[in-house]
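User: two proteins, same treatment. go.

Assistant:
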Amino acid sequence: MATQKQLIDDALSSGSFPGLPQGHFIDGAYSAAASGRVMNSLDPGRGEAFAEFACGDAADVDAAVTSARRAFEAVWRDTPAVERGRILYRAAALIREQAASLAVVECLDSGKPIGEAQGDVQGAARAFEYYAGACDKLQGDTFPLGPAYLGYSLHEPVGVAAQIIPWNFPISTAARGIAPALAAGCAVVAKPAEQTPFTALRLAEILLEAGLPAGVCNVVTGTGADAGAPLAAHGEVDHITFTGSVASGTAVMKAAADNVTRVVLELGGKSPVVVLGDCDREAALDGVMGAIFENAGQICSAGSRLIVERSLHDGFVEELCRRAEKLTLGHGLRNPQLGPVNSAEQLARISGFMERARERGVEVATGGAETADPQTGKGWFFQPTIVGVPGRDDELVQEEIFGPVLTVQVAEDADHALALANDSQYALVAGIYTGSFTLAHRLAQRLDAGQVYINEYFAGGIEVPFGGNKKSGFGREKGLEGLLSYCRTKSVAARI
C-alpha cells in the first residue's frame, strides 16, 4: 500500500488520482448514470479537472430509494442492534486503514490542506465508532400507569433517510449523518455535493466491505437541481438531513412538506467570537485565527465576527493582521496554512462582498483580494482578510460570506458584546474568551446559538449535539440527540 507521501507526490505530479469511482453506488455496486452523463470534478488548488463522476437525475434517485426501501424492510430494520454496532465498528477500522488515500481524495476534491483533511478522515472514523457503541443503548421508557397497566415506548427507525451533503466538509458531514442513521436501523440515500462526490462514494464501499447489506447505504452523485431536488421530493423518503445554504434549505423544506417528510436543517452562520479584556490574549488570538481561517473560512460555524472589548481592540487587531499576513498559501497537498476556496463561483462571491465594501468606504485592515498559488499561479485563492468596523447593518456583519474574511466589531463591555453577538439572523454557534468562569457561563446562557465554545473555538466533538436556531436551521446532529433524529417514538399502553 502506498504511503501518504507517495500518494501526495503522485497526485501533485499527475494532477489526478487513480481508481476513483465513476458511477453511483446503488444496491451494493457501482453503476453508470441512467442518462449516461458524466461531470468533471475540479481541483480547487489548480482550478482544473482531475476526475469524472456520474451525473445523476430522478431515475437514478428512484433506483437508489427503491433499493434503500427494499433493504430497510427486508433486512436492516430487523438486524439486531449489536450486529449493527459490529458493522459500524468494522467500518471505523477500515476508514482508519484507508485514511491516507481518503485524505488525499478529500484534499483534491475540496481544496483544504492535507492536514485538515487528515483530521476530517479521523473524525469520520470516530463518528462511526461513536454510533457503533450507541446501537445497543437505544432504549425506550416505561410509564407509571398503575398496577393494572403496562406502558412503555420504543424507538423505531424512521425508514429511508436522505442525506444531502455539502462541499466544505464532505467526509465529515457524510459520516455524522450516515453513521447515526445506520445505527438507528435506517437505510440511507446520500447525495454529496457535485463539487465533492468521491469520499461519500468511498464510504459506501467501505460500509459494504464492513458487512453492511447491499442497498442499506446508497450514493447518488450529480447536481442539486438534477439529483438533490428529486431526492428531497421523493415520496418514499421518510427523513431528510440537509446541510447547506438557507436558500437551498428552504427549497428542501418546501419539497419535503408536500410529502410531510421530516427534516433536519443545518444552514448558514455568522458566528460571533466575543473577546473580553480579561481573556488569555494568546489563546484568544490563536482561537480567532483558527475560527476564521481554517478551511479558508468555508465553515458554517466559522467565527466570522470578532466582537472585541474596546480596551483590547487596537493591539489585538494589529496582531491578528500580522499573523494573517504571514499565513502560507498554496495547494492543499503541500499542507499550507491557508488553502484555496472550493470553486470559481465561491471565489467570485467572496470578491463581490469585498468590492462592494470598498465602494461603501469600509476599511480593509489586511487582505481583501483574489490571489493564486504562489508556486503555480493557479487555483482559486483569496487573501486572508480582516475588515475594520462597519455599521451593525452592513452586509459584512449580517451576511454569510463563507470565505477567509473576518469582520471586527467593538464592544464597550460584556453586555454590549452580548447585544452585538445576538444581532444576527443566524444563530449557529458562538465563542467566548474571558478569564471569568461566572461571566462566561452567564453569557453562554443568554447567547442565541445552538452551541457555545468557551476559551477554545471548535471545542467538543461527535459527542456534542450540533445545530442552529433562527435561519441557521433546526434539529440537531451529533451526540445521542443526533441518533434520535432518525427514530420515531412508539408508545404502548396495555391493560394487564
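Protein 2:
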Amino acid sequence: MQNNTLSRPGFSLSGTALKRIACLSMLVDHLGASLLENGLFRCSAIDPRLVGLDQLLRLVGRLAFPIYCFLLVEGFLHTHDLKKYALRMLGFALISEWPFDWAFFSGVYWGHQNVYFTLLLGLLAMKALDTSQTPEGMPALKGILGAAACFLAAALLHCDYDVLGLALILALYMTRKDKRAQCIAGAVFSLFEPVAPLAFGLVWFYSGERGGSSKLEQWAFYWFYPAHIFVLGVLANLVLFR
C-alpha cells in the first residue's frame, strides 16, 4: 500500500534526505545526552552556560525520532521481506545495547533499552494490525491484541520512548493513506517532546521517493546508531571526563 503523497512543485525531500537529517539531529541530541549530561555534568560543577547549550542540543535532537518513526512506516509499507527487515532491526538492537548503556549510563543498565527495540516493536505492532483485519479493512481483535502485546513489551523493557513511541508509530501507520492527516496525527502524537512536532514540517515535503544512495550508505544508516554512541561512550568515559 502506497502513501498518498501530495504532489507539489518545488522543494521536496527524499527518504534518503530525511534519513540524513535524522542522523544529524540524533548526533546533536546525543552530544548533549552523553558528553554533557552523562559526562561533564556528572564529573564537575555545572556551568549554567553549558546547561543552556545542553538544552539547545537536546531541542535540535527532538526532530530525529519522529522522522525515524515515519521512515519505519514507509519501510514497512514497501519492504519485500518483512522477516528480514525485523531480524535486521533485532540484530542492531542487540549490537547497540551495550554502547547505549555505556554512552548514557556509564555501564550496564537494565532500566532503559535502546531505540532499535522501540522501532522493532513498532514494526511488529504494524504487522499485527495489517495481518488481522475485518472485511471492512479495520484492525480485528486478534490484531489489536497483538499490537497491545507490543505496547506491553515496550513498557516492561523500558524501551526508548516506550509506549508513547509506539503510539506515534501506529498513529502514522493508521493515517498512512492521507499525507495531511498523517502529518497532523504525527505532530499531535509527538507533543510529548518539545519541538518534535516540527519534524512533520519536514515530513510534509517527503517526495515519496527513496532517493539515491549507495549500498554502503544504506548500511551506514543502520550502523550509524551503534557506531556514534560507541564513540561518545569512549569520549565520555575514557577520554574527556575520567
